[in-house]
Amino acid sequence: MMSSSEFEEWAARMDLTEEAKKEIQRIRQSPPARRVGGGRNNVSGRYSSKKMGVTIQFESHKVELPAIYMMEFNDDVLEYYDQPPKIKMNYFQSKKDKNRKMAYWYTADFFVIEKKRAYWVECKTEEHLIKKSQEKPDRYFRDNGRWEFALGKNYAIQFGLDFLVRSSSEINWILQRNLEFLEDYITNGHIPEDQIIAKIKEAVISAPGITILELIQNADEQFTSDDIYDLIANNIIYIDLYNDLITEPESVKVYLNKEQHKGFSIIEKSSRKRISPKMIEIKNGNSILWGDSAWTILNYDSGNKKVFLYSKSTNEHAELPIHLFESYISEGYIKAVESNNNKESNKLNKMIAEASEKDLEEANKKYEIVTKYLNGENVHLNVTGRSLRNWVKKYNDAEELYGNGFVGLLPRTKKKGNKNSKLPPETEKVMNDVIDQSYKNIKSKTAKQVYRELLVKCEELNIDPPSYQTVCTAINNLSKYEVEESRKGRRAAYKFEEFYTELEFTTPRHGERIFELAHIDHTELDIELKLTSHKTMRPWLTVMIDAFSRRVLAFYLTFEPPSYRSCMMIIRECVKNYNRLPNFLVLDGGKEFHSVYFESLLAFYGVHKKQRPAAKSRYGNDVERLFGIANKLFIHNLAGNTQLTKNVRQVTKSVNPKNHAIWTLETLNEALENWFNIVYDNKINPSLHQSPKESYEESINVSGSRPNTYISYDDTFILMTLPSPKGKTRKVHPGKGIKLSYSYYWCDQFRNPKIENSQVEVKYDPFNIGIAYAYVGDQWVECQSEGYKYLYGKSEKQMKIITEEIRQKNKLYSQNNTVTAKMIAQYIIDSELKEEELINENLSSTKPELEVFDSKDGSNDKNADDDNSNKTDDIYDDDDLEIFGELI
Question: Is the domain of 827 the same as that of 866?
Answer without folding.
Answer: no
